[in-house]
Design goal:
Layout (H helix, E strand, L loop, with lengths): L1 E9 L2 E14 L23 E12 L4 E10 L17 E9 L2
Antiparallel strand pairs: 1-2, 2-3, 3-4, 4-5
Length: about 100
C-alpha cells in the first residue's frame, strides 16, 4: 500500500509528489552462495520466505508523460538470520532512481 501526495499543479498534471507506504513480499525460490562465519555454505532454507518493509520516495514530472522517481525500500525484518554469522543477520534495502514514461 502506497500513499502519494502531489503538489505544484501545471494545467492538467502535478510537477512534484512524495509517496510512502508499506510492502509485503513473498520469496518463491532461493539459492545461496553465502558462507557463514566458519566458511561453511549457508543453506537456502536459512533465508526468510516473507518480507515486510517500508517505501519512501519522491517524483518530479518533467512533462505530462515523463517523470523522474527516487525511491528507498527497507525491510523491517531480517531476511537471513543465523547464530553462525557474526553480523546478527542481514536486512534488505535498496535505493532506486528511475525515469518513467506515463501513458
Amino acid at each position: 500500500m502506497i500513499v502519494q501526495l502531489k503538489d505544484w499543479q501545471q494545467k492538467d498534471f502535478y510537477r512534484l509528489g512524495v509517496h510512502g507506504g508499506f510492502d509485503l513480499s513473498f520469496l518463491y525460490d532461493a539459492s545461496s552462495n553465502l558462507l557463514d562465519f566458519y566458511g561453511n555454505p549457508v543453506e537456502a532454507t536459512s533465508i526468510a520466505s516473507t518480507d515486510a518493509g517500508i517505501i519512501l520516495g519522491a517524483n518530479y514530472c518533467i512533462t505530462k508523460h515523463l517523470q523522474v522517481v527516487a525511491r528507498y525500500n527497507r525491510s523491517l525484518v531480517k531476511f537471513y538470520k543465523s547464530p553462525d554469522v557474526n553480523t546478527g543477520g542481514m536486512l534488505n534495502y535498496q535505493w532506486s532512481l528511475r525515469l518513467e514514461y506515463l501513458f
